[in-house]
Specification:
Blueprint (H helix, E strand, L loop, with lengths): L8 H14 L8 H14 L7 H16 L8 H16 L3 H14 L3 H13 L3 H16 L16 H5 L6 E6 L2 E6 L6 H17 L5 H19 L12 H10 L5 H7 L22
Antiparallel strand pairs: 1-2
Helix pairs in contact: 1-2, 1-3, 1-6, 2-3, 2-4, 3-4, 6-7, 6-10, 7-9, 7-10, 7-11
Length: 287
């Protein structure tokens, strides 16, 4: 643990989150000791649902912090013991809880740290497909669009008043048994989110000049799956897809929107929408 290495932005965000959570603990000592003790507490608490993938992600972020120049070098012995205890706790996680966490992640969404890690890894990949896949995921988080609906997507001109009133939405044509149906998606509330969608639509249309819509969807889906497997080779709970952003977008929208409204925006009834919009897995609101 003596070799110094830089801490990535994705790991930095995890450390920041764990720092906030561990600040409530009555533990003296360096920040890394408080965070390590907090992770151990999460793993030991039978009422707290934490997947084996999240536990490994937390451990990896803590290890990166300890190896960086931010850590205090006079507590390495304590940290070695803590990291060993965390690793042992992770290895002792029951198969039943691991299977349950796998089902939960697949059906419900993607944690913000995992999203940042997947998309940042895609962006630095030299493949043009990987870069497009990262933008695809970002636009999906904003709109809740099905991955296959972008072919007919229409983004209106930016309108501040419409955005403030929840009326600025991407529209798309969805193929139904009784014909085509035009519908809207989750509203875009700020200029930053608008630019994310605008940037992706431009990149998508540029890529469509050399490939079919089916080829774009297939190649980008493969990139997301491959990167997820490379980051978490032994953890199937982190086998993410482009579609997972739709689940997460619905959950994030539930902070200030009724389930029936979110369901309608996603093209469902509230009854059909039971697997979407779970507030418990929504990303923390930005202050």
């Amino acid at each position: 643990m003596s070799e110094l290495s830089p801490i990535t932005p994705a790991y930095r965000k995890i450390i920041d989150r764990l720092t906030r959570e561990s600040s409530k603990l009555q533990i003296d000592g360096a920040l890394e000791i408080r965070i390590g003790s907090h992770i151990l507490g999460l793993l030991a608490n039978p009422t707290r649902t934490i997947s084996i993938g999240s536990a490994r992600l937390y451990k990896a972020a803590l290890d990166a912090y300890v190896r960086s120049d931010h850590a205090q070098k006079d507590c390495q012995a304590t940290m070695t013991e803590l990291m060993s205890a965390i690793e042992m706790s992770i290895s002792n996680m029951s198969p039943d809880s691991q299977r349950a966490a796998t089902f939960t992640n697949r059906e419900m969404g993607i944690e913000p740290e995992a999203f940042q890690l997947v998309t940042s890894t895609l962006i630095v990949n030299r493949s043009a497909w990987a870069s497009l896949a990262a933008r695809w995921m970002a636009a999906g988080i904003v709109t809740g669009m099905r991955p296959g609906e972008w072919e007919t997507a229409h983004l209106p001109t930016w309108d501040q008043e419409a955005a403030q009133n929840g009326l600025l939405c991407v529209s798309t044509v969805t193929l139904k048994q009784r014909g085509d149906e035009r519908r809207s998606t989750l509203p875009i509330s700020n200029i930053e989110s608008y630019r994310v969608v605008e940037y992706f639509i431009a990149a998508y249309r540029a890529a469509r000049r050399d490939a079919t819509a089916e080829e774009l969807l297939r190649q980008c889906s493969r990139q997301v799956a491959a990167v997820s497997k490379r980051i978490w080779p032994n953890d199937t709970s982190h086998r993410y897809t482009l579609y997972v952003t739709r689940h997460q977008a619905a959950a994030n929208a539930r902070y200030d929107t009724a389930l029936s409204t979110v369901a309608s925006q996603l093209g469902h009834t509230a009854r059909q929408n039971k697997s979407y919009g779970k507030l418990a897995i929504a990303w923390p609101q930005q202050a």
